[in-house]
Amino acid sequence: MAKLGLTHVYTGDGKGKTSASMGLALRAVGQGLKVFVIQFMKGGAYTGEMISAKNFLPNIEFVQYGRHCIKEIKQLKLLGFETGHEFYDRIREDIECGTCRWCFVNDSKQAEFCRQAYEKAKDVLTSGEYDLVVLDEINVALHYTYVDLNRVLEIIKEKSPNTELVMSGRNAPQEVMDIADYVTVMEQVKHPFIDKKISARRGIEY
Description:
Largest sheet: 6 strands, parallel
Strand order of the largest sheet: 3-2-4-5-1-6
Shape: globular
Order of helices and strands: EHEHEHHEHHEHEH
Distance between the termini: 32 Å
CATH architecture: 3-Layer(aba) Sandwich
Number of domains: 1
């Protein structure tokens, strides 16, 4: 579509960056656009946005590059499965997000996942096959230098000219914000985890 091709950035320390990205993806699908979502540093196949995309939405592809939830791994092994991706079609009542934070451990393994996600993003963005591409949490990967900033700036410039791009995650580099067409900074005023010690809730945070 001739009017597509701009770059969006959702960043800041407030809640809503992934939510806004997924909302835009939903809107695009509703208008018949072809969408590809790549999540950096996320591997929990039980998340609501992934289950929805895999089961209820046409014209959307969705992949994750990150650690699986350790609770999910234990449950799957008991059932004889190797990964969480066999469970796209069901709500995971046996998984409750808590305080372990295993899936968010930042180490060499997480860095490798991010490098894989970048390579996938490069292929998707330059293919010309997709109207909208969401790179969820790529700004966090950049912040930890798991992905090279100059290489990301290159794919923004070299992407298919009619592919709309969304980049989410806190701590977006200034260079990324400078090159983007939309920049939204989510400001945290209150958050129930910080203010009331309420942990992540099904359907709201994941």
